[in-house]
Amino acid sequence: xxxxxxxxxxxxxxxxxxxxxxxxxxxxxxxxxxxxxxxxxxxxxxxxxxxxxxxxxxxxxxxxxxxxxxxxxxxxxxxxxxxxxxxxxxxxxxxxxxxxxxxxxxxxxxxxxxxxxxxxxxxxxxxxxxxxxxxxxxxxxxxxxxxxxxxxxxxxxxxxxxxxxxxxxxxxxxxxxxxxxxxxxxxxxxxxxxxxxxxxxxxxxxxxxxxxxxxxxxxxxxxxxxxxxxxxxxxxxxxxxxxxxxxxxxxxxxxxxxxxxxxxxxxxxxxxxxxxxxxxxxxxxxxxxxxxxxxxxxxxxxxxxxxxxxxxxxxxxxxxxxxxxxxxxxxxxxxxxxxxxxxxxxxxxxxxxxxxxxxxxxxxxxxxxxxxxxxxxxxxxxxx
Length: 384
Hints:
Helix content is 43%, strand content 14%. By secondary structure, it is of the alpha/beta class.
């Protein structure tokens, strides 16, 4: 199977698996236990925390391990919301193209008495900076804008957003799950950041929230007071060790690997856009090096995925977290695409295991698939 769905999840690296193995059958203790097995686990946990903190240029106590980025994003938004409420602040700002875990958390807060502003984006997916600046008021407790979009790959102007937030005295949170390991990620000016291990060839079931020490959060989980009293629950030591190893390797290989993937991405974009009635979604240049997202008029995205699968190619229509829902992408709708075009989307997300010959095979197969699907489309026939 040719795997072009690396934005959904990635294959674990052998080096990561090797680093994790001792914590399944030898150093398997609970990191809160006082005996040697527990303290060995605690040492590995804290060494991983320090390694990750160094990579992100933050302090170790600013790394909070969670089960995934969805939990990290929920902790950031809800945790700060209920802490800020004590000070009379109840206004949250998020972009319209955030991952569902951010948007659904924002909607939940809205249902529970908070005021939420949903920032519009332009046709490329860039947040409206003027709207952002004008939307911040004395009740605003947080701005949340993702570093790079998971569906269309557009990289947001985080530096400019951080400068606006700093000038207004408002914390900035960013979901950097898709960005880290593919492009340089700057933590300066960012109050909170979510990352996930399984997007960078690490294990599923572990993520983190980078939280500056001056940011106070109300915990979502209550129990033994793990993770600085912010995330109770026995730590996934094996997963955390794997996360640290995956981050280390991703950072080391990023310059060379991102360049290689960008070259394949550009080849895909060039050849796919030769298909009539096809649109590239997201910015043509300011996008993740591994992402290419297209809309094909008069074709259903799900049908494209199934046909590609028959040719042993795995891809997606957008976010894997919402792909079972037969609804047009909220990201593409926010860009201004009509629902009919948003339904006909295809996301190709490359990874370190992809080869140029796979790109050539895909580009050879896809035009025939689109022609076949359009041949049975009444809308395509009516057009012609």
